[in-house]
From TrEMBL:
InterPro entries, per the entry: Epimerase_deHydtase, Lipid_A_modif_metabolic_enz, NAD(P)-bd_dom_sf
Signal peptide segment: none
SUPFAM superfamilies: NAD(P)-binding Rossmann-fold domains (SSF51735)
Span of domain NAD-dependent epimerase/dehydratase: 47-212
Protein name in the entry: NAD-dependent epimerase/dehydratase family protein
Amino acid sequence: MKGIDRMKITITGQSGFVGTNLKNYLNSYKVEPLSIRYIPNQKIEINTEIVIHLAGKAHDLKKVSQPKDYYEANYELTQQLFDSFLNSEASVFIFISTVKAVADEVEGIVTEEMRPDPKTHYGISKLQAEEYILRKELPEGKRVYILRPCMIHGPGNKGNLNLLYQLVAKGFPWPLGAFENQRSFLSIENLCFVIKELLEQPNIPSGIYNVADDGYLSTNELISILGESLGKKVSILKIPIKIIETIALFGDSLKLPLNKDKLQKLTESYMVSNKKIKKAIEKPLPVSSREGLKNTFDFFRHNRQIN
């Protein structure tokens, strides 16, 4: 490989949340964005040493996407890009998959050894892409990493954490305090750190790696961290679980802000092990889970003040 300061990287999906942060993090490399979408029988030209594949279709919480949209964007496109990588001079391929390729709901802790059993088109399409990559014989001198991140957050993120922030910032009490859960989160800084280590440590074996912050946090702890960022005391209500579940049951038909799907997302446990990737890179992650979330909430607060 060439010296790091001259190394070229192709990043697909670079204009998105992860891509934007990753480009800034990899400032010692020459990043070349590649805008691609699935077109039958297309050949993709690769002229860099490294390919980081971020592009794809994320899970559609509004449920308006067609199944084929997932398979074309997440499976077929990945297949085309990976075949192009195999036929190129590039030496490293990093595919950003998801823990949802393993399972949508889990008991215990998600590890790389678990047998995948996704139920959604999003998870299934990502798993199909993983399986295609793993079936291919890897030429000597090439390395391939499949990363399965959990919920990614950080500056510029506009997902569910932003919605929680807005709720607490407006002074609403948190009504789901009676639910006890444990979740994994992933700071964008930790994800970028892991990717950079994979690029710079050629002895790390190819394979599948979960990516998550150290430790787990409950949603109640998350709300408390949010309150600390806002500098205000947050009221956490412990309304009986049966009452909340009954309200959520009628959420769709009555067009309430809480329904069964949202309740599950907010209160389920989803713990992800990061032991394999930490053992591989032999370095601690730079940001703790609490610190990373605080950074995200601080960004929300600052961005809200200047808008």
